[in-house]
Amino acid sequence: MNNEKMMARFWSKVDKNGSTVTHVDGLGPCWSGIDRPTGTESPPGSPHRPCEVSMSESALKDPTPEVTAFAADCEWTGAQSSDRDAWLSARRDYISASDVAAIMGEDSYRSALDVYADKALGPLVEERPGLDDPRFWGTVLEQTILGAVANHHGWQYRAGGYLLRSRTHPHLAATLDAEVDRGDGWRNFEGKTTRVARDWDEDSGSLPTRVLIQTQAQMLVTGAPSTIVFALLQTVKGLQPCMIEVHPSVEFQAIIIETTEEFRERVRTLSPPPADARSRRALERLHPRDQAQGAVMLGADALEWTAEYQEVSRQIAILSKRKGEIQNLLKQSIGDQSFGVLPEAVGNKTCWRWQRQERLGYTVEPSTSDVLLALKQAPRELFGLQLPAANKHNPALIPASETKALKPKTRRRSKR
């Protein structure tokens, strides 16, 4: 399903804070962990491999009640975030709550193709964030902050970090930050720290779409009656706490199930989702340029993409020129003053001002990179070759018989 149509379908049914309170139960079929192509399965005996024991044995040996209050709706996979390598490896077998936002096109940093690459190839090994990285401190202080919030309100608190999978929808999993009981039952407790405060509003209950998707997926896994999201917003006025409670939405969770089912099938059949503007890293993983060779015959879609690319490039050049002209007109109008006040607000802006900025000097180290270029004429060595047709999903799956010879362009001679 197209991401825009999917999100439009959702927003037409529920409020942004997910105000529907009824918990979805039994939507869709019951799936096991992602069925991988041959040769990519988790090894026998892996701690995150789906358990294959009888119900009676499971009831006797299941350690889930020791790590979560939601054992009736989910089970512990055996992985926890304190062992990051094992936890990342275990997540490959499931679609996690944080994956869902990327699959639905609502993650600012990851695309659906990034998630696909993680499932098909394994998680990307990343360098540990340094002391100057906000992610480092967010992880280190997470439990301290959430524990302090729970203690302040007198709530019972249970630290998270355990990878849990849904008993009803075993392909879905989530790692909770924590769980709390305010005296009215246990709930998911999610913590966030961010410098981008504009999408958060405690009074209206609005929060970023990706966080809403994540919380809905978490509740689908745990069966929790709600999720309490505590965000520590970094604003110009200092740290600002924001707490919002999100309730399950039957419509939203039905869309999550449908979307993740379709995505799971893509992984099973090795059919990658279309790339988007955030997919550069995923494309480098799926199609390493150091292994590239030969050529393919592109399809009709490539004609439209090329024409649109050329038109967008032309518009960017025009708009960039106009932007420079407007800036200079404003500078000329402000003259030798520091501020230029607008007669009325435009897009929440009331004035222009000069501000001095300092930039640290640095040297760009020599490097090499691969750049995609459009050529007027194909290289002569390709003429007459039988080229395989490109496939928008997986060029490697194209039958050798579906080929087409490349012919050089011929120029018509003008009649004299």
SSE diagram, text form:
Blueprint: H1 3-11, H2 55-61, H3 64-67, E1 74-80, H4 84-91, E2 95-96, H5 97-103, H6 112-121, H7 134-153, E3 156-159, E4 162-166, E5 172-175, E6 178-181, E7 186-194, H8 209-222, E8 227-235, E9 238-246, H9 250-268, H10 280-286, H11 300-334, E10 339-346, E11 349-353, E12 386-388, E13 403-405
Parallel strand pairs: 2-5, 7-8
Antiparallel strand pairs: 1-4, 3-6, 4-5, 6-7, 8-9, 10-11, 12-13
In brief, what are we looking at here?
With 416 residues, the protein is of the alpha+beta class. The protein has helices at residues 3-11, 55-61, 64-67, 84-91, 97-103, 112-121, 134-153, 209-222, 250-268, 280-286, 300-334; strands at residues 74-80, 95-96, 156-159, 162-166, 172-175, 178-181, 186-194, 227-235, 238-246, 339-346, 349-353, 386-388, 403-405.
- The strand order across the widest sheet is 3-6-7-8-9
Range of strand content:
15-25%
**How much helicity do the residues have?**
25-40%
Average per-residue pLDDT, rounded, comes to 81
Termini distance?
Answer: 56 Å
Cα radius of gyration in angstroms: 26 Å
Ranges where pLDDT stays below 50 over 5 or more residues in a row are 13-56, 395-403
User: Can you write the helix and strand succession as a string?
Assistant: HHHEHEHHHEEEEEHEEHHHEEEE
SS-based class: alpha+beta
- Helix count from the secondary structure assignment: 11
The main sheet comes to: 5 strands, mixed
- What overall geometry do the principal axes of the alpha carbons give? globular
What's the total count of β strands? 13
